[in-house]
Please model this.
Amino acid sequence: MRRIGVVVNGVTGRMGYRQHLVRSLLAIREQGGVPLRDGTRLMPELVLVGRREERVRAIAERHGVERWTTDLSEALDEAEIYFDAQVTPARAAALRTAIAAGRHVYTEKPTAEGLDEALELARLADEAGIRHGVVQDKLFLPGLLKLRRLVDGGFFGRILSVRGEFGYWIFEGDWQEPNRPSWNYRAEEGGGIALDMLCHWRYVLDNVIAPVRSVSATIATHIPERVDDSGAVYRATADDAAYATFELEGGVIAHINSSWTVRVFRDELVEFQVDGTEGSAVAGLRRCRFQHRAGTPRAVWNPDIPATEAFRSQWAEVPDNEEFDNAFKVQWEKYLRHVADGEDFPWNLWEGAKGVQLAELGLRSAAEGRRLEVAALQAPQPTAPRGVAG
Ligand SMILES: NC(=O)c1ccc[n+]([C@@H]2O[C@H](COP(=O)([O-])OP(=O)(O)OC[C@H]3O[C@@H](n4cnc5c(N)ncnc54)[C@H](O)[C@@H]3O)[C@@H](O)[C@H]2O)c1
Model:
């Protein structure tokens, strides 16, 4: 058994607590760590960090984690890896501190609020010779893994288009409790759905379909006033919907709607339909259904009679064929093996910067009312990073 210290910052937040602490790191501890190449197992030893002492202590006690603190530099002294799931504006400074201390860093997205800072963090991390990673959880969802399987198997022929629908209703807070924290609706606190979601769409499109070449977006703040947890009314200064069209390499057109002001009439909270010359598929978080060209019915337009076909029943289910674990946990295991074993881990701060780039361009495209090209980001050839635990 090898042990590796992991600082978890932002552990009182929704993502930090549920996805990263409980479903990933504690689950990895419960299963006895992560197996390494030499047959030993790597056990993450956690140091929890948060701003409010009583809340961090309560979480630590609830889950039997011995080490916790409100002091980041104290935590960094005790661990090899720094993980960040704080609110977005707090992230860059904490990552800089951790990188300067020589810690390996893993972080939630967006890595920074702007591209310049995101690139600077990637450069600093390379210069420090540390191993860095960015959460790109959607790539490890069962639905998208099955979609990827179809792409890799050549099912689609030439891919023509992608249409994505992401979103659900976020209560305004006046008569039902809001289901997301209020900073998400304040631009000055790092909020906004474009910054939040275009980071995801960048790596999903780049990795599953084809690299993104341009963006044209319209954003809106449909609900101008909301009520926070304490009952105070505030002005929503950030966008709560982003309607974005992307051109991908090879001429694929992707359009993705992201909205916190939409009611769900879908099977899952996010769905992507991919249409190709040989077939089509619809992937959600867990399911993926497909229709081959040979099974495509001849549609007849006749609004004078009720629909004669049950369109959804004409699609087949892509089988699981494997067991899927929590997407965040799967990526955590890969990151831990990257640090300890040097296993390939392409989802680094350079890739994270691409997400920030697309969000920034999407917002600019909306402000200027025009389509913008996505310039290639040249990541310098990294010098071999050093490992730890070996
Ligand atoms: N990968 C994903 O699917 C996904 C989903 C949602 C959010 N996120 C990202 O995760 C991060 C956290 O989001 P969340 O929804 O968990 O937020 P949250 O508000 O629930 O949690 C934020 C955390 O940051 C801490 N924090 C540090 N400095 C703060 C400050 N100045 N003000 C307020 N809180 C501060 C809070 O104490 C808390 O622990 C964000 O960067 C967000 O973009 C990622």
The mean pLDDT is 96. The pocket of nicotinamide-adenine-dinucleotide is lined by residues 10, 12-16, 50-51, 85-88, 90, 108-109, 135, 137, 181, 183, 196 (CB under 6 Å). The first strand starts at residue 2 and ends at 9. The chain has two domains: 2-136+326-347, 139-317.
